[in-house]
Design brief:
The chain has 10 helices and 10 strands. The chain is of the alpha/beta class and 256 residues long.
Length: 256
């Protein structure tokens, strides 16, 4: 399988599993990634996801140049034929953690950009080399990157096609942490476990408010936040969380 989907407790791990091709995304991988995201989104018992790559060299080197790009050219003008994923069109409000175990280039960078928390191995590199092919990113990097890091740094990455290293990614706020290679997955797992300790519906609402509100005028964003706040007041999780706080005990959330 090009995508390995595993669930352990409330945590799903989604592994891009083509190490022989630097975890490049061919058409089959893209379709399987869509299915994994649908499973993750649709399972109420899964609260947090980790995305990583197989092996130690690559998170993902991006779209498979020999297959995916010719496929996308063949369906030019028919974008609905491209599988929906969080890269385009699909909304996923559960938290996603990227465990970047090597190069994250092109589409690999774009997969990382759909993640909320990003942990990078010390040898990881990040870049958008599409301009070297006479293209621009097609899975969201031109839109997400300038919204997340300073414009000039986004322009440097997108226009030069040159990669940056993990320490530079940390400095500009593209990743949350840089850790030694052997600590990457334990650290990503610790982040996931910590997120599973708080209200899962609250996590989803917070992410939804951030994503949907980003391009709203402030007053509309405040209305969205208020609506989600009102919804959470009526949940069992809020009753449990507030009760546990007053009783000085650990809450037992159920995502209800």
């Amino acid at each position: 399988m090009a995508i390995d989907y595993q669930v352990d407790g409330h945590i799903a791990t989604i592994t891009i599993n083509r190490p022989e091709a630097y975890n490049a995304v061919d058409v089959q991988t893209l379709k399987q990634f869509r299915e994994a995201m649908l499973q993750f989104r649709g399972n109420d018992d899964v609260w947090v996801g980790i995305i990583t790559g197989a092996g130690e060299k690559a998170f993902s080197a991006g779209a498979d140049i020999a297959e995916t790009l010719p496929y996308m050219k063949s369906i030019r003008g028919r974008p609905w034929e491209i599988p929906d994923t969080p890269l385009r069109h699909m909304e996923v409000y559960k938290p996603l953690i990227a465990a970047v175990n090597g190069v994250a280039l092109g589409g690999g960078l774009e997969i990382m950009l759909i993640c909320d928390i990003r942990i990078a191995a010390e040898h990881a590199r990040f870049g958008s080399p599409e301009v070297n092919l006479g293209l621009i990113p097609g899975w969201g990097a031109t839109q997400r990157l300038p919204r997340e890091i300073p414009w000039a740094k986004a322009a440097e990455i997108l226009l030069s096609g040159k990669p940056i290293n993990a320490q530079e990614a940390l400095r500009i706020g593209l990743v949350n942490e840089v850790v030694p290679r052997q600590e990457l997955m334990p650290r990503a797992r610790k982040w996931a476990e910590d997120l599973c300790q708080v209200g899962p519906l609250a996590l989803r609402a917070a992410k939804e408010a951030m994503l949907r509100g980003y391009n709203m005028p402030l007053n509309e964003g405040i209305k969205l936040e208020a609506a989600l706040f009102e919804f959470l007041l009526g949940t069992e999780d809020f009753t449990e969380g507030s009760g546990a706080f007053l009783q000085k005990r650990k809450p037992q959330f159920k995502a209800k």
